[in-house]
Design a protein that fits this description.
Structural class: mainly alpha
Number of helices: 10
Organism: Longicatena caecimuris
InterPro entries: Homeodomain-like_sf, HTH-type_Tx_Regulator, HTH_TetR
Protein name: TetR family transcriptional regulator
CATH architecture of the largest domain: Orthogonal Bundle
Order of helices and strands: HHHHHHHHHH
Distance between the termini: 46 Å
Strand content: under 5%
GO molecular function: DNA binding
Keywords: DNA-binding
Largest sheet: none
Amino acid sequence: MARNKHPEQTVQKILDVSLKLFGEKGYEKTTIQDIVDALGMSKGAIYHHFKSKDDIIEALGNQSYSSIDGLRAYVSSFNDMNGLEKLRMIFKAQLKDPRKRSLDPVMMDAYSNPKFMVMSLQETLCEAAAFGATLIEEGIKDGSIQAQDSLCASQVYLLLINFWLVTPLEPYDEQHIKNKVTYLRKLMEEMGIPIINDELEQNFLEYLKAVLA
């Protein structure tokens, strides 16, 4: 058997095709055989890289959170911005990211998997929140943010966005979504982090309609 000289390309191909199938059929209804058929590979070739469908969705989730390194590098180039402006820039970039828009509905569908839900919560409360806390701390120092505890504040707003605002657990209702975004905006202002301005509020509504409707 010829040796695969580019295993990372094979892994990415498996992830890309799986993401497409998860988006079309749903995570639970997609089988390994569906992925095999779409790829034109043997089951052995897929199992060489992933032991199960759960491993594939976990890898997709890790890709989503590994983008934090890219965001960290991205925001470091905006030296003329204060902490609050950098937070807004990060959210705007994420809400307009086409791969994130494709990935997020799949991630939400996979919340029925307890292992994946725990992993998502852990990533949100640890790595993602730690990154957000550094920007909040920067905003506290430059006066653009008045939060009391940067890490707690970061954890709260990320939990609200990732698991309350963006949720598959209730039917999509456009007016209810608008009310939730308005409520979140007021809550963030009361927390001393007025991150959601008119432009970002509209970005949120467009994103939520795309991934939830």
